[in-house]
Write a structure and sequence with these properties.
- It is a single chain.
- By secondary structure, the protein is mainly alpha-helical.
- The protein folds into 2 domains: 2-209, no CATH class; 225-273.
- The protein is built from 10 helices and no strands.
- α1 crosses α7 and α6 (99-137) runs antiparallel to α7.
- The protein is globular and about 65 Å long.
């Protein structure tokens, strides 16, 4: 058990490092942050590491729902999604694979320890940037390579892989003991709130994406089709794509008609002048 947990925690930490926005090994931000750094993909990878893909994906879906509308403006961030994904899902998998526990731990880790380590990395990068600039002024090519590539990657690994590994490996007994000591009613409340938070994340996304109140009809139609018609998610995706395409064509044609009508009115007014 200890060896299995050790290997799983180690893989989780490595995945967290590879999913960083500044890691170049998986085509940079494309394969790293925007693929491995997403909670849904993190759930799959952590599930593979722990030998339970189904539980990992369920935890990933729950955490993805919470952070689906998470936006970082410029250099500001309100939560470190990669730490939240691998730390929260890894700890949840180590303690039984409960999605509600994964959501709770992900929010706790992402908005506390994740931000602390994020700001620590930014401070360390400033040091490496200063050293790289000095090496460039002195035409020290080896110094440029080390301070621009090697040094920052070592820093990223130490501040990403190591904390997540320690959290998953040594945090598992702590979380288990905490869950066993708190009353059952508190555990039930945590489970309920953990189930509500993904819905809150989707609601925040809808608030950003939906510009007109009439568009809510599409959301409710999709919900009805899935809940009562028994359609699968794949079938619903194809139906949604077809409806979106029809709406796009309709709005585009409406815009063309409006423009042509406006130009005709303009010509008519010009004719009246003569």
């Amino acid at each position: 058990m200890e060896t299995s947990l050790l290997l799983s925690a180690l893989l989780t930490g490595i995945f967290c490092y590879l999913g960083a926005i500044e890691t170049p090994w998986l085509f940079g931000i494309t394969g790293g942050f925007y693929i491995l750094g997403r909670p849904l993909v993190a759930g799959l990878l952590v599930g593979l590491a722990f030998g339970d893909v189904t539980a990992g994906v369920l935890c990933g879906v729950a955490v993805q729902g919470v952070f689906i509308a998470n936006l970082s403006t410029g250099g500001a961030t309100n939560s470190e999604i990669t730490y939240a994904s691998y730390g929260g899902i890894g700890l949840a998998m180590a303690t039984g694979g409960n999605p509600a526990i994964a959501v709770t731990l992900a929010i706790l880790i992402g908005q506390t320890f994740g931000l602390i380590f994020y700001n620590s990395r930014m401070a360390a990068y400033s040091f490496w940037n200063t050293k790289a600039q000095k090496a460039a002024e002195e035409l020290d090519y080896n110094g440029i390579t080390f301070n621009h590539v090697i040094g920052p990657q070592i820093t990223t690994f130490l501040l990403r892989a190591v904390p997540v590994f320690l959290a998953v490996y040594y945090g598992q007994p702590l979380v288990d003991g905490l869950l066993n000591t708190i009353p059952e009613v508190v555990t039930h409340i945590i489970s309920v709130l953990g189930g509500v938070l993904p819905a809150l994340g989707i609601a925040m996304l809808m608030n950003i994406v939906i510009k007109e109140s009439s568009h809510f009809i599409f959301f409710f139609a999709g919900f009805v089709l899935m809940a009562f018609a028994g359609l699968s998610m794949i079938a619903l995706v194809f139906i949604a794509a077809l409806v979106a395409y029809v709406v796009y064509l309709t709005s585009e044609r409406r815009g063309v008609v409006t423009e042509s009508g406006g130009s005709s009115a303009a010509v008519f007014e010009d004719d009246e002048l003569f």
